Amino acid sequence: MSKQTTNTSEHHQHRIFLSDSLSWYTHTRLGGVLRDSAEAAAASSALASTGSTSSDFVTLTREVEWLQRDVVIFGKKVPQPRLIQYMADDVRLAYRYSGCDLVPVKFHPIVLQAKEQAETLAGVPRGYFNSCLLNRYRDGKDSNGWHADDEPLYGRDPIIASVSYGAARDFDIKRKADGPPEKARLRLCDGDVLIMGGAMQRNYLHCIPKRANSKVDGERINLTFRRILKPM
């Protein structure tokens, strides 16, 4: 991996390029502060580091209608190991994955505010992200398996922005089977913003692995912002 500094909007973003030289991510805080490994380690033991993210987390747990949906894995229908909700600009921006059909609800005000901050950090125009998949990990048993956000409705090489609230969780990255072995692990903490771009979804997979509850300090909420180009 290599690190490259680029100037996007008014923020200096440190893009981490993976070995294919086409895939990159940035790891920052709400407000645009660069996140490094030492900061992430410190934040993992002090989760509610800012009042805004702490209060926003509580509000989201209470006011979002969280759902547990069934998904189809290897032809078998199983309960998804986390709670979800789906929000978008337009009810026509439906989303389907793993046999699960999602019809969007309107953006919650906190989600809309986070979307605008994520757009600034990603260096894209206001209103660029038009949909958001929300994930709620209740404990270490809740997880998200290896996958890529490479559905055709996002177009080729989408920009994906992820905002984290609550407990810190590992975020693993690995090269798809047709490439050389390569793995990376990030620690996503309360208030962290991860932006993935370039060929990241085309060439790499990512996941939130299961963890012993003793190693996870409570619940985590993740807002994953995307731009749908080709509605279903």
From TrEMBL:
Pfam families: 2OG-FeII_Oxy_2. GO terms for biological process: DNA alkylation repair. Coiled coil: none annotated. PROSITE patterns: FE2OG_OXY. GO terms for molecular function: dioxygenase activity. Gene3D superfamilies: Alpha-ketoglutarate-dependent dioxygenase AlkB-like. InterPro entries: AlkB-like (IPR027450), AlkB-like_sf (IPR037151), ALKBH3 (IPR032854), Oxoglu/Fe-dep_dioxygenase_dom (IPR005123). It comes from the Eukaryota. Belongs to the alkB family. This is Fe2OG dioxygenase domain-containing protein.
